[in-house]
Amino acid sequence: MDHRVTQFDEMGGPDGATRAPYQKLAQWLAGTPPELLASRREQAELLFRRIGITFAVYGAQEATERLIPFDILPRIIARSEWTALEKGLVQRVTALNLFLADIYGKGEILKAGKVPAELVYGNPGYCPEMAGRRVPHDIHVHIAGVDIVRTDDHGFYVLEDNARTPSGVSYMLENREVMMRLFPDLFSMHRVAPIEDYPDELLATLRSVAPPKASNEPTIALMTPGQYNSAYYEHSFLADKLGVELVEGRDLFVKDDVVYMRTTEGPRRVDVIYRRIDDDFLDPLTFRPDSALGVAGLIGAYHAGNVTLANAVGTGVADDKAMYTYMPDVIRFYLGEEPLLQNVPTWRCREPEALSYVLDRLEELVVKEVNGSGGYGMLVGPHASKAQVEEFRAKLKAHPDNFIAQPTLALSTCPISVAQGVAPRHVDLRPFVLSGANGVRVVPGGLTRVAMTEKSLVVNSSQGGGTKDTWVIDDAIMGQA
Amino acid sequence: MLSSTADNLYWLARYMERADFLARAIEASRRLAALPKAYGGEDTEWQSVLLSSGAAAAFENTGKPATEANVVEFLTFSRDNPSSIRNCLECARTNARAVRTALTVEMWEAINGAYLELKAMEARRGAYSSDELGRFLEFVKQTSLTYDGGAYRTMLRNDAYWFSRVGLFIERADNTARLLDVKYHVLLPEKELVGGSLDYFQWSAILRAVSAHTAYHWVYRTSMKPWLVADLLILRPEMPRSLISCYESIVRNLDNLARAHGRQGAAQRQARGVYGKLETLTMESVFQGGLHEFIQGFISENNRLGALISEQYLF
């Protein structure tokens, strides 16, 4: 089975000859003593620890704050490859936004029978309160994180669309900072596309979707559930880079359908909230009454058009794994174009023939819960024990609607620096796509996640995965000695 | 600025300052306890540090005798004492994490680095040897210096800075007052003369605790006299820990806030009131009314200022 799992190495290529984007790195590695790499690894760890780039782990008693392992070797993508990927991402997210505006509006795609209506209306991410409501510029997903994998040199596959509150962008930015501190020489050898303007782009995006009633200088705030949230570091980091207030629910209040922050100078009106808190917790009056994280009356202010929430409420309907399977049709329907990025072939277990196919081949497939995230609630057939497979079989039979299945992908590998030298590990990529009134854009790079253990396919940080810097380099310098 | 941010900055500064004070108070008590028993001193040093740091009642609840080992444990690493050094540093870090956006990198790294080191020390500590305790107290003072220096050197002079400074000086004024009170709680044996050698050592230990031993000689050019030590720590504007010096800073920083916000309130008035009283005060009148009584009165006025700030800035 494993021969299917390690085929394409992004550095070594299919035949072991160094691929063009990696040639300079390979030369540099050949001339670099292992001790230097080891010492840079230590420095990197120290830097991350000192800066305090951590994430919290739910349920882990002692290590409530962990460092995400960082690998010091960059993942390199040639500009030509990137350009193709970027076009595909823009296309996909444009379609996602049209889809959301449609299903909360006229529902044309459902009438056309391209997507089953029950899959939309019965979806836990569907938000009935949004039906018939329009949001500024019809943009629902202002910030999307699209998980990408590659299996060979021919292209990229979309593994998952994250349209709710995708995280990880702080690691993209901090990884670059640390790399520039540790390896200035490598940067001078390559022309690496800068990503430092991401916060400016994000701010411009958020400003562009301010409510029409807001002033020319809209007040923007970033809303966090608080410092015990796993992504709290990222929330504070981004607020800092954006130059906006980091607020919790208790810092906000609503009066006459207008949202205010409590400040030392009295109440201050808020126009746009980049919220990193789930729909269910936004407003105890509309959603969960037991939640203390949100703001009473927020949804009222939202519906009155006095505040913009980014991302919009109810985007979860577009990012579950069942809806994912329809994305190619969604793109064709709204844009009249063929999808530039492929989906991973997926069986919808809600369809009887697919289910029986999946049940017959559980040992070969990856089975995922449609609403699961963070690597929880999934079965990786080839790596699972007999008991785990049987347990999943029972779950699958009981609630087939809850699952999709995909082939065990030959995820590409990338070299990482380990004690013995360098070794290949599986990677994926999460680029961040911004959509505002000013267009859709992607900074050249993203978060490369690495499965730190040999042969493992699990790259999630909550499951011990690591990260590395992602470089988009000019093709012109490739192959030069 | 968000009210919650101001609140966090204010308390962050107070916790850092308090950790520093506790380290200094423990050092003072160690010095006092180290005086030869031939002088006839009674073993009240460890009780006195509990009283002066306001932790006596909490310690009583542990039911343990006030021996050096027990008191030091309670004031340094105990999780049961909300004001132990460990808990102060942890609270400081919790507040710092909440307002990272308002801190400079230097300040955050000082707190976060100290916190990580503290965790490591906590994990490997057994019974403290005298040396190890000394090193730990040194580490705490160093942390506070680094943090304070980071704030002084790197922060923008805006409301974030002013709220932190106000917190720092309110805590420092409180601590200086409490430190002077140590002397009240360490009983001088009846047969000892006020101004005798034990008395001398006790005052000297207090001065050393706040690194003011040399300063004393620069200012007065005379041998140790209790009313001069009190004068230095209460009324001397050139002494950076003195009550008057702390209040001069509190008034200035609150005025900066008032100017930036375009209005002043009860907090500014209270601070100026206390400062005004200190300016016209003489040591004679302090000693006539009793040093201990003066200190108790000051501490409660200082607390009142804290409450007024919370009210005015909606903490």
TrEMBL record, chain A:
UniProt cross-references to Gene3D superfamilies, sorted A to Z: 3.30.1490.270, 3.40.50.11290
Pfam families: CP_ATPgrasp_2
Domain of life: Bacteria
Circularly permuted ATP-grasp type domain segment(s): 74-451
TM regions (residue ranges): none
Protein name: Circularly permuted type 2 ATP-grasp protein
Record organism: Methylocystis parvus
TrEMBL record, chain B:
Phylogenetic lineage: Bacteria, Pseudomonadati, Pseudomonadota, Alphaproteobacteria, Hyphomicrobiales
Protein name: Alpha-E domain-containing protein
Domain DUF403: 1-314
Superkingdom of source: Bacteria
One Pfam family matching this protein: Alpha-E
PANTHER family membership: BLR5612 PROTEIN, SLL1039 PROTEIN
InterPro entries: ATP-dep_Glu-Cys_Ligase-2, DUF403
